[in-house]
Amino acid sequence: MATKEEITEFLASAFPQNKSIVEQVGNASATVIHPVGFDELRPGGTVSGPVMMTVADVALYVAILGEIGIVPLTVTTSLNINFLRKPSADRSIVGVCKLLKLGRTLAIGEVSIYSQGVAEPVAHAVGTYAIPPGSR
Amino acid sequence: MATKEEITEFLASAFPQNKSIVEQVGNASATVIHPVGFDELRPGGTVSGPVMMTVADVALYVAILGEIGIVPLTVTTSLNINFLRKPSADRSIVGVCKLLKLGRTLAIGEVSIYSQGVAEPVAHAVGTYAIPPGSR
Amino acid sequence: MATKEEITEFLASAFPQNKSIVEQVGNASATVIHPVGFDELRPGGTVSGPVMMTVADVALYVAILGEIGIVPLTVTTSLNINFLRKPSADRSIVGVCKLLKLGRTLAIGEVSIYSQGVAEPVAHAVGTYAIPPGSR
Amino acid sequence: MATKEEITEFLASAFPQNKSIVEQVGNASATVIHPVGFDELRPGGTVSGPVMMTVADVALYVAILGEIGIVPLTVTTSLNINFLRKPSADRSIVGVCKLLKLGRTLAIGEVSIYSQGVAEPVAHAVGTYAIPPGSR
């Protein structure tokens, strides 16, 4: 298992492009927060779809690392996302992941995605990661 | 209907963050190319999942605009992606979209994603866009 | 809005092939139970995938009808399902749906699928229904 | 590898409930045909969603068995389906599967689903099967 600090440090060194901040991790779950600025917006004053996909992907990755420890080569094998409501252009995007299954070589989780401080989700994703054999 | 030049110009002005280049559009299809550099890589010497999701999203958007003209508020409602093989770290990512259905308010398409010059796809996506009522 | 009794009666008359029993409906949610017998099993002593897909589809339909009333032409537009664990061959399949969004013409919900009496889900689905314009 | 005859015989003995007929198998592809009668219809004079999901699932299974031989415990791990057009109530449902990837323990394929004799697809699915380790 990896702590919030260990995962934050790992992301900073291995994924320097990553903008998501780890807010919580543990108990087969994770919460990450992605600030929204110029790079994240699209026409209509809303957050772009790929930003929300990225948040879903990172939230899943963090929840899994929280359970299995730092295994960098754990990779996404599938992601399914539904966009539910227009996100706010001036609020961070929050991803809340709950793992549905953590097997030896496969992990599946769902991620609810919010505009920070707004109750109803803006998107919902389900994703699968492959865990390298022998790493747990 | 919008041409390759019109869509390229629209993307440049409305999505200045976009890196994908429109290679082909028309006949309910589109091909876009996304260069791969530091920002696109992740541990293990491979292209990050969100880059491929972004390419799938843009390829779909371009294919739809090619049919319905420039309708900026056409937005993604769902995306499902499967990652099939490890992309090359030193090749651009190419997305080839074919629309499966173009309705009045909904468009669905599939996108095959490649490392440029490699025959087997690295990912496959299916996505849905909502078209604002009255725009076609 | 439709009650459990109204939906049960409607399913019996309009979907005579349906085997799922409505256990609960209301508050943007529904629970349905599908008995498991010869028709539902497959090699390996487990419940077939299509049975679980059917339960997901029916649970969503019931949750939506519970909110919008009996609108028979409400139809599935997409379904994504992940199979998590082997279901028990001698327990009913239970589908618990929570709606994520109920718009004027589109509803999205997630469904957790269980072998009755077992805590961990055997599958998880997310589906979308189109509601005929003007029916709400 | 398994032939059309071997797969047909296997389905008849292991899945006696199966109604899909194997029309073609080989070259990482398969075509199956499912007759449409009372059991397959739903209100509005159309084929029920679960029938199309079943056809997608069987077409994938047949395409995989065609490549790896009869491995009964190969099981679906995910399925994503989009419904595109209303199927005809008086035509069989045809599923045409092409495998996107055939790995040692995972196979992914896409399935186009038609009302027999109609050019435009009624649905499109992408699914994943897990192949038991050691079986290929």
UniProtKB/TrEMBL annotation, chains A, B, C, D:
InterPro entries for the chain: HotDog_dom_sf (IPR029069), Thioestr_dom (IPR006683)
Domain Thioesterase: 44-118
One GO MF term attached to the UniProt entry: thiolester hydrolase activity
A Pfam entry, by short name: 4HBT
Protein name from the UniProt record: Acyl-coenzyme A thioesterase PaaI-like protein
Species for this entry: Rivibacter subsaxonicus
